[in-house]
Amino acid sequence: MNKHLIKYLSMLPLFVLIQVLVLNEILFFTYINPYLYVALIISIPQKTPKWFLLSYAFLLGFLIDLFSGSLGFHSTATVFIAFIKPVISKITIPHNILADTDEISLNKIGTKSFITFSLILIIIHNNLLFILEHLNISLDILAKSIASSLLTLILILILDLFRDTRK
């Protein structure tokens, strides 16, 4: 398990830099912004200690907030999805498919389960993030959240496919 924790800590700066320097600067259709860093929380093994998962999610969100100039919105959203991840995984991922140290991936749990699991976490993350940013709930914010969630899911699927073909 320790090698997974070190792996995820070493991937953290790369994902933060990609998000801050590339993805935050590219707005699709002037308001759609993908959040690829959520892939780290989605793919971390299920049996990761809760203290590490929540601390890791906070650090990830804090670094995105720090470099984006936001006021804790990303850290709140990432800690929340890390907190509810075990519950969502029990609902969407079939039992006894993953070993303790298996990362959650498309090939490990199947396409339907992975898309369902990822999309639920991404939608919760984006809704919470946009509601905190705008302090408002409207159709524009809902449309922005759904569009950003779908684009984020597509990027996470591409990343997961690339990661699996590399092995």
Structural write-up:
- The chain is an all-alpha fold and 167 residues long.
- The protein has one domain (2-166): Arp2/3 complex 21 kDa subunit ARPC3, CATH 1.10.1760.
- 74% of the residues lie in helices and 0% in strands.
- It has 7 helices and no strands.
- It has helices at residues 2-23, 38-43, 50-68, 73-92, 106-109, 111-134, 139-166.
- It is globular and about 40 Å long.
- The two termini are 19 Å apart.
- The mean pLDDT is 90.
Gyration radius from CA atoms, angstroms: 15 Å
The CATH class is Mainly Alpha
What global shape is seen?
Answer: globular
Domains, number: 1
Give the distance, in angstroms, between the N- and C-terminal Cα atoms. 19 Å
Biggest pleated-sheet summary: none
Mean pLDDT: 90
Reported CATH architecture: Orthogonal Bundle
Structural class: mainly alpha
H and E string:
HHHHHHH
Point out poorly predicted stretches.
none
Helix content estimate: over 70%
Could you tell me the strand content as a percent range? under 5%
Separate helix tally: 7
- At the fold tier of CATH, the topology name is Arp2/3 complex 21 kDa subunit ARPC3
How many beta-strand elements?
A: 0
Summarize the SSE layout with pairings:
Elements: H1 2-23, H2 38-43, H3 50-68, H4 73-92, H5 106-109, H6 111-134, H7 139-166
Helix pairs in contact: 1-3, 3-4, 4-6, 6-7
